Amino acid sequence: MDKRNNQPLKLCLTAHPTYLPVVTGFVETGTDAMGMGKEDTLRLRLATEEIFLYLCEAICPESPLDIECFDGLYYTRLTFRFTASGLNLRGLNIASKGVSEEGCDLRDMGLLIASRSVEGLHLTLEPSKRVRLAVTKEKTYPEIAERFPLPQISDSPTLEAADREGVKRFALLLKQYSPAGDLPSCFHYPGRLADMVAGGEYQLILAVNERKEPVGGLLFHALSERVVEACGPYILNATEGQATAEQLLDGCLSRIVRTKALGLLIRSGLPSMIEDRFERLGRTIFHATGRPTADHSSFFRLLHEDPGCDVWSSQGLFSTWLERVYDRLVLIRNIRISRNMGETKSGFSLLSAELLRERGDATLRPLLPGADFAVNLANHIRLIRQEGFLNLFFEIDLGIAWQAEMVPVLTANGFEPEILLPFAGQADLVIFQHHDAAES
Q1: 109: containing domain
Q2: 154 vs 423, higher pLDDT
């Protein structure tokens, strides 16, 4: 299958409102060349207008601004890179003033309004101290309901890299013979899954019978340089498919064991027949409108000898949760306790809010510490819940001492540690999930 090696389109200008027609023209021309439909282009243009004007007025006025438009085949990503003062960075909090005591100021809700038009919004601070703000608009695909007879399970299936038609056929079969609530959304849109694989970011291994019909599959991609994430293996006849599931898993491992990846992560659950080949990391609870609440378990498999590392923790997290998790996973860690010793905290905190509207998920990540963290966090919780996100997470990196100091504020605001992801950040990541009082 053809893999894309696209270079992004780039636009360099000054952050000034007079350049708005240039920016919107850049987006429209780029998305047209990338094959995005009119409705999707309009939504991305609306998000672009809000972000550009907000940057011009509140964040980096009359400063250099680089904009990139990247074709991911199944999505278009628009990235803004700029430099802003420490004070102005505060305005990049998605809840900077939108829900404060001073009332709602629409000028300070540019990022929130922009997020309503796209599937994803992600903010990061780069090592060069520049800010990277990325918005992602996925292309709209038809939801196909074509039906096929269940393929005959083979005693000796063979593995093959899926071509475009094989990807689509497997997605249609999987959607037909698996419970809808158990599948990632990409499997509901065969065209999207085919483009995900064709774009090169994802790989799909198929197990096929003697008639070359897919009987199982496993989708995987690099989550980071040190962790590969997989979905599956999915077996069309789960009652007879243990050998197929193990074969798919081994096929995935053989493809990644020679890379720099230290571990294989699966957050979409595993067939019970191969759970013993992984370590269970924990579970999160997923809420979806119109569907029952579901528990999603996460699993991890170490691919090489654990190199060990230093991690930071608050005393409370260590004594109530982290120590037990590390003992159970048998990971080599030097745990250092981060304590507040009366030092002054100053400045404004900055949180990245990654909003995935299709799934109803919001993930907060700390980018800068600050004396206002407790108030900032409470504002984000309130705003994100008001926006209708049912699943709210907070991610801390145990390789960064000041992030560990945030844990008492998190637990005081309804967050509980649920999953530890080895090697997923500078060190390990801990995923906290927010639980409303009504869930208790």
Answers
A1: 1-140
A2: 423
